[in-house]
Design brief:
This protein has four helices and no strands. By secondary structure, the protein is mainly alpha-helical. The radius of gyration is 26 Å and the shape is rod-shaped.
Protein backbone atom coordinates (compact mmCIF):
# COMPACT_ATOMS: atom_id res chain seq x y z
CA UNK A 1 0.00 0.00 0.00
CA UNK A 2 1.29 3.46 -0.92
CA UNK A 3 2.12 6.04 1.68
CA UNK A 4 -0.70 8.68 1.76
CA UNK A 5 1.95 11.37 1.30
CA UNK A 6 3.20 9.70 -1.88
CA UNK A 7 -0.36 9.50 -3.20
CA UNK A 8 -1.04 13.17 -2.47
CA UNK A 9 2.23 14.25 -4.12
CA UNK A 10 1.47 12.16 -7.21
CA UNK A 11 -2.08 13.54 -7.28
CA UNK A 12 -0.67 17.06 -7.22
CA UNK A 13 1.89 16.27 -9.93
CA UNK A 14 -0.81 14.75 -12.14
CA UNK A 15 -3.13 17.71 -11.64
CA UNK A 16 -0.35 20.20 -12.37
CA UNK A 17 0.68 18.32 -15.50
CA UNK A 18 -2.93 18.05 -16.70
CA UNK A 19 -3.49 21.79 -16.21
CA UNK A 20 -0.33 22.67 -18.11
CA UNK A 21 -1.19 20.30 -20.96
CA UNK A 22 -4.71 21.74 -21.27
CA UNK A 23 -3.28 25.24 -21.66
CA UNK A 24 0.03 24.36 -23.31
CA UNK A 25 -0.27 26.78 -26.22
CA UNK A 26 -0.99 29.77 -23.96
CA UNK A 27 1.18 29.10 -20.91
CA UNK A 28 3.58 31.97 -20.21
CA UNK A 29 7.25 31.77 -19.34
CA UNK A 30 6.44 32.81 -15.79
CA UNK A 31 3.88 30.02 -15.41
CA UNK A 32 6.40 27.48 -16.72
CA UNK A 33 8.98 28.76 -14.26
CA UNK A 34 6.55 28.53 -11.34
CA UNK A 35 5.47 25.05 -12.42
CA UNK A 36 9.08 23.85 -12.72
CA UNK A 37 9.98 25.19 -9.27
CA UNK A 38 6.91 23.64 -7.66
CA UNK A 39 7.46 20.35 -9.45
CA UNK A 40 11.07 20.27 -8.27
CA UNK A 41 9.93 20.62 -4.65
CA UNK A 42 7.43 17.81 -5.08
CA UNK A 43 10.02 15.54 -6.69
CA UNK A 44 12.45 16.21 -3.83
CA UNK A 45 9.74 15.22 -1.36
CA UNK A 46 9.10 12.05 -3.36
CA UNK A 47 12.82 11.22 -3.35
CA UNK A 48 12.78 11.34 0.45
CA UNK A 49 10.00 8.72 0.43
CA UNK A 50 11.40 6.41 -2.23
CA UNK A 51 11.28 3.47 0.16
CA UNK A 52 7.49 3.65 0.27
CA UNK A 53 6.89 4.05 -3.47
CA UNK A 54 5.02 1.07 -4.91
CA UNK A 55 4.91 -0.31 -8.45
CA UNK A 56 1.56 1.41 -8.91
CA UNK A 57 3.19 4.71 -7.91
CA UNK A 58 6.02 4.09 -10.38
CA UNK A 59 3.44 3.54 -13.09
CA UNK A 60 1.81 6.89 -12.25
CA UNK A 61 5.21 8.58 -12.34
CA UNK A 62 5.93 7.10 -15.80
CA UNK A 63 2.57 8.38 -16.99
CA UNK A 64 3.35 11.89 -15.72
CA UNK A 65 6.74 11.79 -17.45
CA UNK A 66 5.14 10.99 -20.83
CA UNK A 67 4.05 14.63 -21.05
CA UNK A 68 7.53 16.04 -20.45
CA UNK A 69 8.50 15.99 -24.14
CA UNK A 70 5.53 18.16 -25.16
CA UNK A 71 6.11 20.54 -22.24
CA UNK A 72 9.83 20.84 -23.00
CA UNK A 73 9.08 21.45 -26.68
CA UNK A 74 6.79 24.35 -25.79
CA UNK A 75 9.39 25.74 -23.37
CA UNK A 76 12.02 25.64 -26.14
CA UNK A 77 9.67 27.50 -28.49
CA UNK A 78 9.22 30.24 -25.89
CA UNK A 79 12.98 30.37 -25.29
CA UNK A 80 13.63 30.73 -29.03
CA UNK A 81 11.01 33.47 -29.31
CA UNK A 82 12.61 35.36 -26.43
CA UNK A 83 16.04 34.95 -28.01
CA UNK A 84 14.76 36.25 -31.35
CA UNK A 85 13.16 39.23 -29.63
CA UNK A 86 16.43 40.09 -27.87
CA UNK A 87 18.36 39.72 -31.12
CA UNK A 88 15.89 42.03 -32.90
CA UNK A 89 16.18 44.60 -30.11
CA UNK A 90 19.97 44.53 -30.40
CA UNK A 91 19.74 45.05 -34.18
CA UNK A 92 17.43 48.01 -33.64
CA UNK A 93 19.97 49.51 -31.22
CA UNK A 94 22.82 49.07 -33.69
CA UNK A 95 20.80 50.66 -36.50
CA UNK A 96 19.66 53.48 -34.25
CA UNK A 97 23.20 54.19 -33.07
CA UNK A 98 24.42 54.35 -36.67
CA UNK A 99 22.17 57.36 -37.28
CA UNK A 100 22.70 59.06 -33.96
CA UNK A 101 25.99 60.85 -33.63
CA UNK A 102 27.41 62.25 -30.47
CA UNK A 103 27.93 65.92 -31.17
CA UNK A 104 30.04 68.23 -29.09
CA UNK A 105 28.06 71.05 -27.53
CA UNK A 106 30.18 73.82 -29.05
CA UNK A 107 30.66 72.29 -32.49
CA UNK A 108 29.46 73.64 -35.81
CA UNK A 109 27.80 71.79 -38.63
CA UNK A 110 28.32 72.98 -42.19
CA UNK A 111 25.90 71.91 -44.87
CA UNK A 112 27.44 72.32 -48.28
CA UNK A 113 24.83 72.39 -51.02
CA UNK A 114 25.54 73.06 -54.63
Amino acid sequence: MSNPSVISILDELELMTEEIMNRLSIVTEEEFEAMAEHRELLVKRLEQMKGSITDQDRSRIKNILTFDQAILHRMHILKDQAGNWIQNQNQVKVQKNAYQHAYAANSLFFDHRN
